[in-house]
Amino acid sequence: MNVTSIKGFRDVLPQEKARQRALLEAARRVLESYGYDEIELPLLEKGELFRRSVGSTSDIVEKEMYSFEDRDGAVIALRPEGTASAVRAYIESGLTRALPVARLWYSGPMFRRERPQKGRYRQFSQVGAEFFGRDDPAADAETLCLVADICAAVGVRGTRIDVNSLGDAACRPAYRDALAAYGRAHASRLCDDCRTRLERNPLRLLDCKNEGCKAAMAAAPLMIDHLCDPCRSHHNEVLRLVAAAGVSVCANPRMVRGLDYYCRTAFEVMAEGLGAQDAVGGGGRYDGLVAALGGPEMAAIGFAFGIERLDLASMPLQDEPENPVARALVLIAPIGEIAAGPALALARRLRQTGVRVEMESPGRRLKAQMKHADKIGARFVVILGDTEIAAGKATVRDMQAQRDHASLFDLVDDAAAIMTALESIGPNEQR
Ligand code: HAM
Which domain holds residue 219? Predict the structure, then answer.
């Protein structure tokens, strides 16, 4: 019997990986243009970290977290998300003092033991961003602009950003009670899960996908009608600033989030073409979390996108590396053993300048090598046969123009000459 992968854990094969990398690169550029610095966080954390942040009554912690005992008895968990780790790192590193306003981004795999389906896996990747130290509405608005700009850069189709306010410690408890009371009055129409949620986490009643629950909750009280004055004016100002910045968002008073740390602004990014799992990203404000994890009182807001879902929802990116020359694939075709040494030396020099080079086996005939060049989509083929080696030159064939573009170069200057030839063709023509 073959050994197969674990359910919900998938291989990202080369084509998909290349698309993911291009997505991440596009996102990175936007994040850096907003002043975010990259941080790398561990995949394993103490289980307690997620219980105290994401919430012990959340589905993510209660049902989906890969949590187990380490050999020394400590309970550790594969991270289901990045915010808790980012906050822990921000406190533990002392950056809360050294950098009281900080913008950090990260990417990498996350783990949730959910039921696998299209766009939902047990191991998936996120790119996330956390903005610490600002509690003013302009910080929320800037975050929403960043979210919209990442969607645009990545080419997400049919983006809709749903925004809501989840209130704060002053106004949410009373709303929670009102919602639970409503739920209790309609308990007979709720699914078993929701009946449990009723007492433990009533906000999640608004999020159940079950049609019966949706109908039962249709007339439920909404947080937006129970906001205290400071939360209400914060929310209105966020919406005003976002509109002023030219970003359109959709106020959705029924939107709640699956993680417990949020307060005030919360949002989800929906996209076309994803089926049931239509959120490509989500986030919000989590002002109490830094203090709850042992740090100072500090406001924060952030978000994360699912990379697999961004890929499913976006148009294929025109891969645009910073150095366009670097993308032109060159195949070096040495014909015969004599050419192998110079061919290797040439390949190295080209690679050092950032050109992607593939080298054929010197034992193969030119015809077979040219066929391979077509197959891999090489832009140039550098032919090194006996004649070329004897003359100290190389033939550079332009595969797009179907001609020997650059005549023969002296082998001494070959790398530089090929680079010049690539550059003279211009970035648009290169693949
Ligand atoms: P989240 O909404 O749980 O938020 O996840 C963010 C995104 O990760 C989702 O919108 C989705 O695209 C992707 N995602 C989640 N679960 C899966 C899955 N099982 N398979 C594939 N993709 C998935 C958070 O994780 C928060 N930490 C975001 C945040 C950052 N809030 C503040 N700062």
Answer: 172-223
Residue type at 59 in one-letter notation? D
Q: How far is the CA of 313 from the centre of ligand 1 (A)?
A: 15
Residue 337 lies in a domain: yes
- At 426, is the pLDDT very low, low, confident or very high (cuts 50, 70, 90)? very low
Based on the fold, state whether residues 106 and 91 are members of the same structural domain.
Answer: yes
Q: Are residues 26 and 150 in the same domain?
A: yes
Digit-coded pLDDT (tens) for 353-375: 777 888 878 888 888 888 888 88
Domain count, the chain: 3
- For residue 231, the CA-to-ligand 1 centroid distance in Å is 25
Residue 288, CA distances (Å) to 135, 200, 205, 361, 415 in order: 11, 20, 23, 61, 57
Among the listed ranges 15-29, 243-257, 334-348, 393-407, which one has the minimum average pLDDT value? 393-407
CA of 187 from ligand 1 middle (Å) equals 29
CA–CA separation, 82 and 177 (whole Å): 30
Helix 192-200 and helix 172-185, axial crossing angle in degrees, nearest 10? 150
Q: Is residue 431 part of a domain?
A: no
403: CB partners within 8 A, 6+ apart = 397
| Ligand 1 contact via 112 beta carbon (within 6 Å) | yes
Q: Indicate if 87 and 189 belong to the same structural domain.
A: no
Give the mean model confidence (pLDDT) for residues 164-186. 95
Domain harbouring 65, CATH code: 3.30.930.10
Contact 329, 365 (CB under 8 A): no
The rounded distance, in Å, linking the Cα atoms of 188 and 144 is 39
The verdict on 53 and 122 lying in the same domain is yes
> Token match 């020997």: residue?
404
357 within 8 A of 351, measured Cβ to Cβ: yes
Same domain, 119 and 200: no
- 346: CATH: 3.40.50.800
pLDDT digits (tens, 9 = 90+) for 270-279: 998 888 778 9
Q: Mean pLDDT, to the nearest integer, of 174-201?
A: 92
Same domain, 121 and 260: yes
Q: Note whether 76 and 139 are same-domain residues.
A: yes
With a 6 A CB cut-off, is 137 part of the ligand 1 pocket? no
List the Cα angle 365/366/367 in 5-degree steps: 90
Residue 6: inside a domain, yes or no? no
Domain shared by 347 and 384, yes or no: yes
Q: Judge contact between 303 and 103, C-beta under 8 A.
A: no
